[in-house]
Amino acid sequence: MANKMKSHRGACKRMKLTGSGKIKRSKAFKGHILTKKTAKRKRGLRKSTVVSSADHKRMLRAMAK
Buried b / exposed e across 8-30, counting CB within 10 Å, b at 16+? Predict the structure, then answer.
């Protein structure tokens, strides 16, 4: 019997699969050093986004889906 691939637990905790099969993720650069960033930029970083098509296959493998 072939071995199953283990899912990357860190990736699973950070990303979520949508109903249509896309992968939702939160944006980076919102952790610290926020004083120099504009309010508009910080507001944009609050929203979640979809993983790009270039990374989609790689992220699915990491999530073992």
Answer: eeebeeebeeeeeeebebeeeee
Please state, in angstroms and rounded to a whole number, the distance separating the CA atoms of residues 48 and 26.
4
Q: 0.85 exceeded by the pTM?
A: no
Bridge partners, 28 (sequence order): none
34, 42 contact by CB (below 8 A): yes
Q: What is the pLDDT of residues 29-64, one digit of tens each?
A: 999 999 999 999 999 999 999 999 999 999 999 999
Q: Is 37 exposed, middle or buried (0-12, 13-18, 19+ CB in 10 A)?
A: middle
